[in-house]
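#dry-run=false #mode=assembly
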Amino acid sequence: MKNRIALMLVVVLLVSSGASVLAAERHETLIVGGGPWNPATNWNPLYPQRTSATIGLVYETLFGYNPETNVYKPWLAENGEWISDTVYQVDLRTEAYWSDGEALTAADVVFTYELARDNQLPYTPIWRQLEEVKEISTTRVQFVFSDPSYQEWQIELYTRPIIPQHIWSQIAGDQLLVVANDNPVGSGPYKAGVGGSDRIVWDRDDNWWANDVFGQPQPKQVVEMIIPENNVALGMMMQRTLDLSNYFIPGIPAIKNAFGLSTWFDDAPHMLQANTAVLYLNNQRAPMDDVTFRHALAYAVNPEIIAERVFEYMVPASDPTGLFGGWMAYHDPDVAQEYGFGYNPEFAQQLLDEAGYIDADGDGWRDLPDGKAMSFDIIVPAGWTDWMESIRIIADNFRAIGINASPAFPDQSVYENRMYTGDFDMLINNYGANVSGSPFTYWNWIANHNIHREQVTEGNFGRYDNQELFDLIVEFNKVLPMTAESLAIASQIQRILLEDMPAIPFWQNGMWSTTQSEWWTNWPSEHSPVGYPSTWGGYWQMGGVDMLINLRSTK
Amino acid sequence: MVRYLSKKITIYLVTFVVAVTLNWVIPRLVPGDPITSLLARFSGLEGGREILQSYFVQTFGLNQSLWSQYLGFWRSLFMGDLGLSITRFPAPVMDIIKNAIVYDFVILLPSIVLSWIVGNKFGAVSGVNKKADNLMMPVFYFLTSSPYFWFALVVSYIFGIVLGIFPISHAYSATLSPGWNWTFLSDFLMHWFMPFITMFLVQLGGWAIGMRNMIIYETNTNYSKYMESLGASKKLIRNYGFRNGVLPQVTGLAVSLGTIISGGVLTQVVFAYPGLGYTMVQAIKQSDYFLIQGCFLFLIMMVLAANFIVDIVYMMIDPRVRHSYSEEA
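#status=ok
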């Protein structure tokens, strides 16, 4: 009786909280997991921590970008090009309109950028290089630069959502980041639906402007379930209550066939690559300030063992340059060959012996050249099981050549604090190493110049100081992409990073993606590489929406 | 009566202030700050992070002295304002909790009440019936020594994966919206069952063992023997034993409420059930000060309120307590 009363209570509360009575058919609903960790509370396109699918499903960018094919897909733009060294011209599609029926025009694009010029918004720094955004006609916009950063601009093209002027011009400057925007008017194929504490719901907008241009997305509803543990995601895949999992699930290669699950590749490495996991060495502490010592560490680790034991070959070991995917366009194989490293513990020991890192006191561990003992902690956040296992292997590899290293697992907030303040020996991180339209993001993260301050948050956590390299990275950003000049600079950057080894790329983390075909088929895979199987924030316009368009219901 | 209540209320108030203060202080002692961790994965133009950082520090008043933050916290609390969540900005903490706590009530309330009633009944039978005792006791010991999250995994595996009867996660199917219809209600019940039965069974064992021991003790006391010698029926003796045995069980309920609620948190995580548990775990991971404060505040209030109810009940069912206070007055 009591639980019945309680149940009535919950129903009353749920109904009174404004939820509607509506049941979508299962074969029209796509259920995904792995993107959001919190229910939807913010649909503000100006605020970076908004509900992640807001960009891509509701608001759209000028271009899409597919990291797998390294192709920019004109989206709101029909085309865009540099018409001079300092002017980038965009022609918008004439078909585009907002979900409330208003036309989407050049004025909206100009407004989106001028809003950041007149207010303090996360993309305000674009105005350090931008001089003016000109509306040439209703569909033509010119971006006039004073000092263009071509590489960053490529990324800007597929990450900046265009927002409707007729709505956002009504909002006061100090409210721009505050509004939740819970009834978002965008130009994208979906609208915010009625979610709950454990899910986010997106309802298809059947009047999307691009239905005839790109095709209509097939799922009437996309439901993002919030799943706290990856074993729950696996269970849901087995129960067929989850169509696409973007969680790292251990054991997938072994069980996927038995349970009818699929990944991008049929065989190893199974998953696409999403980012590079890097071992940061604190260059401010001895002996990590010694380049020979850093080289010895690189040769001491066997990343194949990590790929095998931790990731069951779902991901490959990293290229010595740390580059992958579209970045490989700038990869210099000669440099990688000449300066690259690989697992060679004998050579690592030889390097250490020659540099004087020998066991002076006979305790079994190598000491500093001056005879002082040395020992190191390698840290990753507690609970990140794949990384925890990885640094156990790395520490074992180090100990095998006489370096006293041990893994440690502080809480994530403590880990991050130690990373930013330089209070660590070694750590694994990948925050800024995500797949993108330019290797500039990776280099500017691994060797960021902004290190002379208390908290280093933009990358280069080991505070490696090399002005020559910093200048090269800036220069790379400022020459036109894929020219002989930019390729030459890219080679130099790769050479310096390998010669100096400020941080060591060891393996790639996967774009974890497991699918089942009970309700939906035609998933993007190596056999049909259309779209990108990711629901992570920032990936919907990187092939996620293409995936929705190409899916087919089994019914 | 009044004296009893006023004494109790004073104790509760002091406990409340101390507990709330602790839960305000502890997250702030952890190195790092919520804004930096919120922006840890910020990717965008260089300089964008600084703009957001200074904006948020200002918005959440984290640049003020700790004292003024603390006093501000109490000021807002009296006005029923728990602030805005950092990780779910700009949602008010109160709204987040209101949406989540419903799910705690539907699991905790029935499981606590039913397991207590059923556990005591089973324990009483076990205490007087040797056969039943031999059969049931091992089961009760197994149940009571099972950690909640482990038992939840077992239940989930057996009923969800192997038998495939119940859905293993969330509060209702992805295709449904909450509503007054049988489709939704039955679906909701199916999702509710496994977290409920986990909480119910693990608690059940403890109550049964407690009552069984009390009954055995009570039936061997002098008053029982005296009743027996007067020719009273076994049933009558047992009923008196039960009435006396229930008293420590009520106290036990008050004592174990904290454990039960924290067990509820873990159970919710296993079943991805969207109560305060998951909200709190996420808030702690992301050091969302205001959401942590809000969640703990509600948990503290739940424990104190439940304890208070138990105290009142105790006074009503135990005449000694009632009389001792009224005589003194």
